[in-house]
Amino acid sequence: MDETTSREKVLKSIRNSLLSKTPNPYTDTDLEGKIYAELDESLALNFAQEFTNLGGKFIYCEDEQDFKEVFKAFSSSEEIQPLFCKEPALQKMLTSIEIPFSDQASDFKALRTTLTTCEFLIARFGSVMVSSASDSGRRLNFYAEKHLILAFASQLVPETKDALISMREKYNGKLPSMITQISGASRSADIEKTLIKGMHGPKEIYVFFVDDIIE
């Protein structure tokens, strides 16, 4: 009678596979070279094009004062209330241009719009990198119908790897527990193959891009 169990057979097969090494058939593969071609346009232009192609809305601001004026006009033309904001610097800006906001947990479920900053902008994919290290935390990037993001030209990087390298430098090697990229408004075609925006997060995403680089 064969007393060898199925488990023992599997383990024996694994051991035999580990003992017999298979030579690498792809020794000439370049693992160090760049995967993508160089970006032809400026980082800002490439980001704007990719971001809008993904359904995001890009708003250029010459400087921080211009951003205040643009944002005040935006708040008058768009329905953004109730607005939720937890970052002190942004709260100070909203107060200076007399735009009401809340940062109270009791108001969170009723919010329509959130205003946050971000970590980096990735030009290649038109993506916004965010993390749990900001005062906005995890939820504000994904809960509201509208997500408004204040970003700066100095946060632009070409590729995702550049953003991750900069994140390690920024946080002295101790990365935040959550890092993710936002690529346009959330969307899904899981239901009857019909594209629906805002399925798992904001229906609209705006990047207010402040040019803080002096040439």
**Secondary-structure element order, as H and E?**
HHEHEHEEEEEHEEEE
Q: Strand fraction band? A: 15-25%
Total number of beta strands: 11
Structural class designation: alpha/beta
The coarse silhouette is elongated
Q: Helix count, per DSSP?
A: 5
Question: How much helix, percentage-wise, in residues?
Answer: 25-40%
Task: List low-pLDDT spans.
Answer: none
Predict the CATH topology.
Rossmann fold
The CATH homologous superfamily is called NagB/RpiA/CoA transferase-like
Radius of gyration: 23 Å
Distance between the termini: 83 Å
Tell me which CATH architecture applies here: 3-Layer(aba) Sandwich
Q: What is the spatial order of strands in the main beta sheet? A: 1-11-6-3-2
**What is the average per-residue confidence, as pLDDT, rounded to a whole number?**
86
- Biggest β-sheet description: 5 strands, parallel
Question: How many domain regions?
Answer: 1
